[in-house]
Design brief:
Blueprint: H1 19-23, H2 76-90, E1 94-101, E2 104-111, E3 127-128, H3 133-146, H4 180-192, E4 215-216, H5 221-224, H6 231-239, E5 245-246, E6 262-263, H7 265-276, H8 283-291, E7 294-295, E8 305-306, E9 311-316, E10 319-328, E11 331-338, E12 343-349, H9 360-372
Antiparallel strand pairs: 1-2, 1-12, 3-6, 4-5, 7-8, 8-9, 9-10, 10-11, 11-12
Length: 382
């Protein structure tokens, strides 16, 4: 596996570098109905299991402590080495980590976009973002509510007759009155300058250039249904006897508004920060969005939370993020923003699941977070 070395760009120190959030349906009082119906997360699906930590009493992040820095001095070489170790252990062909903090922008890239070539991944490469699309669909619904075109408690049967149990399922795309791709472009992509982000048509299996190929061992059920790899199959993977399948040009129409978008690390960093810092919704709806996450486990009210197409978790006393994950055959990704410390993090890989069954970008998360936050030592890091 080839690894790109760290680079600095001026004073920015530019390092060239959950299944829970990746599979949630929109837990809006409105579920995005026809857009995401049927995408119900399997019980127990979640990102890397992290230790119990002190959490704020509500989903809204508390103000940072001005007396002590929550962040380490970012060490580009240390992050690069950590990402290299993780990529090797997880057997991913290629991975990208994009980190933005008040100290600058850091990039760590490893491996290749296509095994057998020397094409190293970059933050400009396009890939399928899977369930991170839900962050966009849910916010579009909130924008329609903000415009007065719907209410968040409207049943889907008000807009689309004949939907089974439609009186108990709330709102759908039709409230916008235009194709979803046009609404995404007009309301989200164009205003934020997300020139590398798109929602392809249901028969379009291409990706814009430059793009990464996406891989997975075995059939898609291992990703979509959480089926573990048998021990003998794992052994064949590790020995190299079994090669991963190229899922790059799969037809993602089964996902569409729940997981069909294509983007880049650069665009996703802009997107998740803009969303979290109030550049998409007006103040009233922004507050609803930020306050929406509720505990996924009623017996652990301070644990991981999920709300209007967004997850929330406090990983440590000074480490908190609004985030989401994406997983489909070929790719795995994580996007998050910490509003307390102005930290934005994007991780993507071009292998969905490691031989031992870990979603690869999510499995890298503890490693990267430990490099960012002072005093943080999450288990499972490389």
């Amino acid at each position: 596996m080839r690894y790109r070395t760290a680079e600095r760009e001026g004073c920015d120190a530019d390092m060239t570098n959950s299944r829970a959030a990746s599979r949630r349906t929109l837990l809006l009082t409105p579920c995005a109905a026809l857009l995401v119906a049927g995408f119900v997360p399997p019980p127990g699906a979640g990102p890397p299991v992290l230790p119990d930590v002190q959490a704020t009493p509500t989903a809204t992040a508390s103000a940072p402590d001005p007396t002590a820095s929550a962040l380490k001095r970012i060490d580009p070489a240390a992050i690069r080495s950590a990402v290299e170790r993780a990529a090797k252990e997880l057997m991913v062909p290629g991975a990208v980590v994009l980190l933005r903090t008040p100290q600058g922008t850091f990039r760590a890239t490893v491996g290749t976009t296509e095994p057998g070539t020397a094409e190293q991944p970059t933050t400009r490469d396009h890939f399928r973002i899977a369930s991170n699309t839900k962050t966009m669909t849910s916010v579009l619904i909130l924008l329609l509510a903000q415009d007065g075109k719907l209410r968040l408690d409207d049943p889907v049967s008000d807009y689309v007759p004949g939907v089974p149990n439609g009186e108990n399922i709330t709102i759908a795309e039709k409230a916008g009155g235009r194709p979803l791709v046009q609404q995404f472009q007009d309301r989200l992509y164009r205003p934020l300058g997300l020139t590398g982000t798109s929602l392809p048509g249901i028969s379009d299996t291409s990706l814009p250039t430059p793009y990464s190929h996406g891989y997975m061992y075995g059939g898609s059920a291992y990703a979509l249904a959480d089926e573990p790899y048998p021990a003998d199959i794992q052994a064949q993977m590790r020995s190299g006897k079994l090669k991963p399948v190229d899922y790059t040009h799969q037809n993602p129409s089964y996902a569409t508004a729940a997981g069909g978008a294509i983007s880049t690390a650069d665009d996703l960093a802009t997107w998740i920060r803009s969303l979290t810092t109030g550049k998409v919704l007006d103040p009233a709806f922004q507050k609803q969005w930020r306050d929406s996450p509720q505990a996924e486990d009623p017996d652990a009210p301070e644990g991981q939370k999920y709300g209007y197409g967004i997850a929330y978790q406090r990983f440590g006393p000074k480490a908190v993020m609004y985030y989401h994950g994406g997983e489909l055959p070929g790719f795995n990704s994580f996007i998050g923003h910490d509003p307390d410390n102005d930290v934005t993090l994007v991780i993507w890989t071009n292998l969905t699941v490691s031989p031992d069954g870990r979603t690869t970008a999510q499995a890298m998360l503890p490693t990267v977070l430990n490099q960012i936050y002072a005093g943080l030592s999450l288990p499972g890091a490389y």
